[in-house]
Amino acid sequence: MNLLIDLIATFLCVALVHGYIEKPGPRYPPTKGEVWPRPQTQIKNGSYFILKPSLFQFKLTTKHGECTLLKDAILRYELLIPHAYAIVQKTLDTFNHTNHKKIWHTDKKFLGNINYFDVELTSSCNDLEYPTDISYEGYSIVISEGTKRLNSTSVWGILKGLESFYQSIYLADDYLSLRINKTFIDDHPRYSHRGLLLDTSRHFIPLNKILLTIDAMSQNKLNVFHWHIVDDQSFPYVSQKFPELSEKGAYVSFYTYTPAQIQVVIEYARIRGIRVIPEFDTPGHTRSWGVAHPEILTACEGDLAGKYGPINPAREETYDFLNELFGEVKEVFADNYIHLGGDEVEFECWESNSNIAQFMKKHKIGDYNALESYYIQKVINLVDKLKYKSIVWEEVFNNGVKVPKETIVHVWKGDWTDTLLNVTQNSYKAILSSCWYLDHLDSGGDWESFYYCEPNMFSNDTVLQSRLIGGEACMWSEVVDTNNVISRIWPRASATAERLWTEQIDDEDFDVVRRRLEEHTCRMNRRGIEAQPPNGPGFCVV
Ligand SMILES: *[C@@H]1O[C@H](CO)[C@@H](O)[C@H](O)[C@H]1NC(C)=O
Ligand SMILES: *[C@@H]1O[C@H](CO)[C@@H](O)[C@H](O)[C@H]1NC(C)=O
Ligand SMILES: *[C@@H]1O[C@H](CO)[C@@H](O)[C@H](O)[C@H]1NC(C)=O
Ligand SMILES: *[C@@H]1O[C@H](CO)[C@@H](O)[C@H](O)[C@H]1NC(C)=O
Ligand SMILES: *[C@@H]1O[C@H](CO)[C@@H](O)[C@H](O)[C@H]1NC(C)=O
Ligand SMILES: *[C@@H]1O[C@H](CO)[C@@H](O)[C@H](O)[C@H]1NC(C)=O
Ligand 6 within 6 A of 460 CB? Predict the structure, then answer.
């Protein structure tokens, strides 16, 4: 009897150990032609067409007239398709790889060549249009024997569809041909605000890396570039009205973003369907503003004498200055939203300052939370007068500041489910970042925790849920610069992108998700994005 138990125990033990022994080869082989983020509806079929880049073309039709925006987009994809192929062939040549087993397409799954793809915009096109918070982004794709077509009622939907079409193309196992499967896709985003925050103050991020980031965002259907452009450490934004801010506040005079460069970023983003929302965080996080304009900051007194604290809310001229600055910012950045910050205000310097004490007494402001509220209230009012809508970090709401109803509250702290509940119960719109801090590193596979973060968890009330309009992955740049910013963000932010695009995804087979991300990462690599490997051992041919 004992012997039997021993035998069973030994067997179980061996079985368990075997379960953990690595097999040779990649841990999660990439999928073939899977779209990331996953479309809401896709009917798949393993039958495929062959796409020969030299024969293939897009055929664009619009409701009326020209559409330069889409013509240019099509041109980009027309170059990308052969590029992905050529880059792999070049690698094979480097290794003197010859394909011995050419696959002849006589199998039943082969449906013929795909030589064209119809792109139909069923509305008129305004080439100068900017994407907004209410832009429609849905599209449909059919690839079948009879029909090969993408359609949408908006240019932004067409852009998303072109990306999905491109992602559906994959290399055959022999690396000799490009394939695309027969399929039907009907797709639209779950949330309208799908963002990436990039901090360009803690480390300066050069223009080319910003553009590359925006490129990668479009590959993940993210649509808001939240540009955390200035902070305590440096002020790289070149203001036309106050050029001294960056002349003195940038790390060095040339680590700045000039008006012309900012226009390049905005236009690069626009034609990819991405909004650019700048953040000018006040009253805290403003130390670099004070290099040129110490008078707008609070001069600390007592033990802290010689140091500067947050913006001085007691000084009326400060609001005139901000009015001028934000008036300019609104002209420069086309979007109708500005992010006003309002996070992490430290009170000790305010507490030390005797003028502020007098001011509070005079205005019957009881404590420093109330003083902060007084300040933010005034800033929000002046921005409101500029017809500029605002996003604020959650502290502004938590401190009970009265903000206009369309203000978006940006939730970033740990107790986010409670905060989201409170914000939405108070009828404000919210965006979430708490679970998508890219600067918090776990191990290589930490994108999975990003993926598991389900924003709707805060409530089962659909009205409250509808007030949550999206989220942002945040790349604070204390420990990233031009050398590692791209690989730190990607493909980790891809997990956030899918969470924000695709409706409830909890029933998914997680191994398939891993394999899809493996393919998506290789695809980004082929497009020049140095995304890091997501799943441990494996390889990409790039
Ligand atoms: C896939 O497409 C082929 C070719 O049109 C068709 O014969 C087959 O029935 C389809 N399979 C499924 C599961 O729909
Ligand atoms: C495409 O078809 C192949 C088989 O021909 C299959 O392995 C692959 O998973 C399919 N991909 C998609 C996205 O349907
Ligand atoms: C490939 O072939 C060329 C020419 O025969 C040779 O010079 C080169 O070293 C080879 N490369 C590799 C990686 O074997
Ligand atoms: C695309 O066209 C089909 C057929 O006309 C239509 O049913 C579908 O709603 C259209 N899709 C979009 C996103 O406009
Ligand atoms: C909800 O937020 C308000 C401020 O807007 C605050 O006074 C209140 O304590 C919060 N409630 C909870 C339960 O956190
Ligand atoms: C939502 O409903 C589910 C299922 O009834 C429950 O487990 C969960 O606790 C609810 N969530 C909230 C925030 O009330």
Answer: yes
Q: Cα–Cα distances in Å, from 432 out to 97, 143, 145, 418?
A: 48, 36, 43, 12
Per-residue model confidence (pLDDT) at position 440:
86
Q: Is 400 in the pocket of ligand 5 (CB under 6 A)?
A: yes
Q: Residues lining ligand 2, CB < 6 A?
A: 31-34, 44, 46, 48, 109, 181
456 Cβ below 6 A of ligand 6? no
Q: What is the pLDDT of residue 20?
A: 54
Between the CA of 29 and the centroid of ligand 3 the distance, in Å, is: 29
Catalytic residues: 344
C-alpha 225 – ligand 4 centre gap (Å): 29
Q: Report residue 521 as tokens.
A: 């990462």
The pLDDT value given to residue 226: 98
How high is the pLDDT of residue 34?
98
Given a cut of 70, the residues of the chain with pLDDT beneath it are: 1-21, 99-106, 443-445, 506
Q: Buried b / exposed e across 343-352, counting CB within 10 Å, b at 16+?
A: bebeeebbbb
Ligand 3, from 96, 97, 98: best to mutate by most atoms within 8 Å of Cβ?
A: 96
| 94 CA closest ligand 3 atom index | 13
Pocket test for ligand 4, best of 148, 151, 188 (most atoms within 8 A of CB): 151
- 3-class SS letters over 3-52: HHHHHHHHHHHHHHHHHHCCCCCCCCCCCCCCCCCCCCEEEEEEEEEEEC
Q: How far apart are CA 450 and CA 261, in angstroms?
A: 32
Which pLDDT score, from 0 to 100, does residue 99 have? Answer: 64
- For ligand 3, which residues put their CB under 6 angstroms from it? 95-96
Please, are residues 235 and 291 in contact by the beta-carbon 8 Å criterion?
yes
Which pLDDT score is estimated for 89?
85
Instruction: Determine the Cα–Cα distance for residues 136 and 288; give it in Å rounded to an integer.
Output: 39
Q: Model confidence over 78-125: pLDDT tens digits?
A: 999 988 888 888 888 888 887 655 555 568 899 999 999 999 999 999
Give residue 9's pLDDT.
47
pLDDT digits (tens, 9 = 90+) for 342-363: 999 999 999 999 999 999 999 9
Q: From the alpha carbon of 417, which atom of ligand 6 is closest?
A: 13
- Between the CA of 458 and the centroid of ligand 5 the distance, in Å, is 15
Residue nearest to atom 5 of ligand 4 (CA): 151
pLDDT digits (tens, 9 = 90+) for 43-77: 999 999 999 999 999 999 998 888 999 999 999 99
Spatial CB neighbours of 319, under 8 Å, sequence gap ≥ 6: 378, 379, 382
Contacts of 196 (CB under 8 A, 6+ apart): 213, 217, 222, 224, 225, 226, 472, 473, 474, 475, 489, 493
Q: Enter the tokens of residue 98.
A: 């010859």
pTM of the complete model beyond 0.85: yes
Domains belonging to the chain, first-starting first, are: 41-187 (3.30.379.10)
Distance 165 CA to ligand 1 centre (A): 20
Residues 6+ apart with CB under 8 A from 295: 312, 315, 317
